Structure formats: structure tokens, C-alpha cells
Prior knowledge:
The chain is α+β, with helices and mostly antiparallel strands.
Amino acid sequence: MDGLEIIVWVVAAAVGVVGEVFTASFFLVFFAFGAVLALLLALLGVGLPLQIVGFIVASVASMVVLRPAVLQRLHAGGERYEGRGSIVGKRGVVTTAIEPGGSGTVRVGSGEFWTARAMYPGERIEPGSRVRVLDTDGLTALVESMEIKGGRES
């Protein structure tokens, strides 16, 4: 049993776990699984070529089998996120007043809440007002009021 192989597999597993914590992509953790299997093989005295094969097989197999199940489990029952481009043109309701030059909150479509600013900076839009999303600025919806002005809906 070579101590260097054990250190390499422990470090590889740690890098996979730490990398997964920072990325939350459910990708690196499967390499950590492979590294743990290779570590176990190294502890059992199996040669380096079989450790590498074990690492590759365990990484790929766990990614193919577990990743879809994990991602499906995370998305099942969770809120569906609308991409910022997909809300352009949709209608919403102001839930927190949009102050002139400031921001408020709107509920867009089926109930997703977005930070919002008035497209026209001097405009105040009251809670309960209906708005249309004209654009996005990062994660902020740029909206215009659809309230009746001059006898018709704008």
C-alpha cells in the first residue's frame, strides 16, 4: 500500500466535495464518489491501474444513475423558475409600491415575485396596479403601468 496513492485519492475526494459545495451543480460530487472508491481500492492494496479504472467507472456510473434522479427530486414539487427573458411581455400585479426612481415588487404570471422598477423613472405605481413587463435589468423587471389613463387602458 503506497501512502501517496491514499493521499491523492483523499485530496481528490475532498476537492470534489468542496467544489460541489461552491458550485451546487451536482457534477463534481460524482468524481468524489469515484475517488472514495479508488481510495478504498488503494487501502485494500489494489494496484494503481485498477484504482484508476475504479475511479472512472464509479464516477461515470454514479453520474449516469444518480444525477438524473437527484435533479428530478430537486425539481419535483419545487417552484418553477421563469427565466428573466421569458417574463418580457407578461402582465403582473404590483405587490409593493414602486417608488419614483426606486423599486418595488410585482407578481408576474402564475405567481412568481420579481423586484421591479418603473420604465419611466418619475412614475409611482401603487400596490394592486396591473403592469406589463417591458424588459429586464439583471433580475429586476422593468414595468409600465396598465392602469386606465384618460378613459382607456394603456
